[in-house]
Amino acid sequence: MISNKVIEIIMKIVGDENVITSKEERLCYAYDSTPNAFLPDLVVRPGSTEEVQSIVRLANEHRFPLIPRGTGTGLSGGSLPVMGGVVMDLTRMDKILEIDEENLVAVVEAGVITYKLQEEVEARGLFYPPDPGSLKTSTIGGNVAENAGGPRAFKYGVTRDYVLGLEVVTPEGEIVSVGGKTVKSVTGYDLIRLYTGSEGTLGIITKIYLRLIPKPEAKKTMMVSFPRLDDAARSVTEIIKRGIIPVTLEIMDDRTIQCVENHKKMGLPLDVEAILIIEVDGPRLLLDGQAQLIAELCQNNGAQQVRIAETDEEREKIWAARRAVSAAVVQIKPTKISEDIAVPRMAIPEMVRRLKEIARRYQLDLVIFGHAGDGNLHPNILCDQRDHDEMQRVEKAIGELFKAAVELGGTLSGEHGIGTMKAPYLKLEIGEAGYDVMMKIKKALDPNNILNPGKIFWSENNG
To answer: Per the domain annotation, does 252 fall within a domain?
Structure first.
């Protein structure tokens, strides 16, 4: 518990109106996008880096946990106060400080909503490519902390590929500035990469320098259906071999297609094993040719139907099918466990087969969709967390799906992070030695275990 004395000090730092003490309001911070919930002892909403620094120093003095948080859209439990303590809501720090059109750099505070930044830069003919599924509600700070990806990652990369500099409050309350507006820097250790994807365990990110690029002139979208999943995977490789790098290359399996069609009645084919949604962007003059070549390659690989959008309305209808997935699948059962394993592209069919076998063996509902271009699959287990027996089967199935991904040369997480949900399985991928190195970094930078305890490292979760 946080003492009244400490609460009074925090109120002096940020103002009474930016400290949340009532249980009803604190409940809003007990959740993210996972099924679990942990009630914080207190919520504080700082408005500046200096206020963050003062609270971090106070936390070290009085030994209470601090949990950095954006808007709570995470899918791995990374912003949950699993050991109580103070949730630090950074959404007040929401200023776009600068858009430098000459140097192609945006400077933003951690609480800026991703979509807001994209709108601002695109109005100036520029482009910030990272597009996590939660982009209309998630914050840039959260994106950096989780190294968020998204459908456009295949062509443009993930969040870390656009981070040029950071301002960070360390776990002991120092302010560190690394990087800046320069495109290249090899001065010492790459601290930008260390903090990016560290899930709030090594520092609190307060300001970010982001690389921008010119906005593509146009885009072309198509939907391709395949009777056989293997043919869809082979088509992905063929497209890339021909020198075409789509901006997005999404896949939906047969169960996902059925869920979306039952939910929305969009005219999707129900006699196929997979649908690919493919989008290319770039100079307008090149796109028709690229789209036709992709269509031919897919047809030569057994595609049943190719739909190329000729208008914005047709493009919107294609993407509506992909956006409807989350709402459609929860019609089956109320709890959705969303994983984000990634495997080499050509291992996608084998991974899907293993996932379906795991679901069959444990008698679970499973849908599979994701980013075929970079092998990042989202197997979603649909269940009811009130059913104890079913949740035990879910836990066993999750362990097996992670093991299968690693066996196929893949990873536990392509974009959601480790948090609490994947912490028990981390050693499966990085081994004892890798785990030990990560633990040493955490202990060296956060000797009092102040920042986001109970995340990434399973020994802490069992604490």
So the answer is: yes
Residues in the chain, total: 463
Name residue 90's amino acid.
L
CA distance linking residue 16 with residue 22, whole number of Å: 13
129 closest CA partner among 96, 154, 92: 154
Residues 314-335 pLDDT 10s: 999 999 999 999 889 988 999 9
Contacts of 101 (CB under 8 A, 6+ apart): 124, 126
- Within a domain: residue 302? yes
Query: pTM (2 decimals)?
Result: 0.95
Residue 341 sits in which domain range?
332-417
pLDDT digits 0-9 by tens, 187-241: 999 999 999 999 999 999 999 999 999 999 999 999 999 999 999 999 999 999 9
* Residue 211, both tokens: 């690389």
User: Quick one: 210 and 82 in the same domain?
Assistant: yes
Q: In this structure, what is the dihedral angle of CA atoms 251, 253, 259, 261, given to the nearest 10 degrees?
A: 70
Residue among 375, 429, 435, 423 nearest 406 (CA): 429
Look at residue 230 and tell me if it is in a domain: yes
* 391/107 Cα distance (integer angstroms): 44
Q: Two tokens at 165?
A: 């500099």
Q: What's the helix, strand, coil split of the chain in %, to 5?
A: 40, 20, 35
Half-sphere exposure of 425 (CA within 13 A, CB side): 24
Rounded distance between C-alpha atoms, residue 212 and residue 121, angstroms: 8
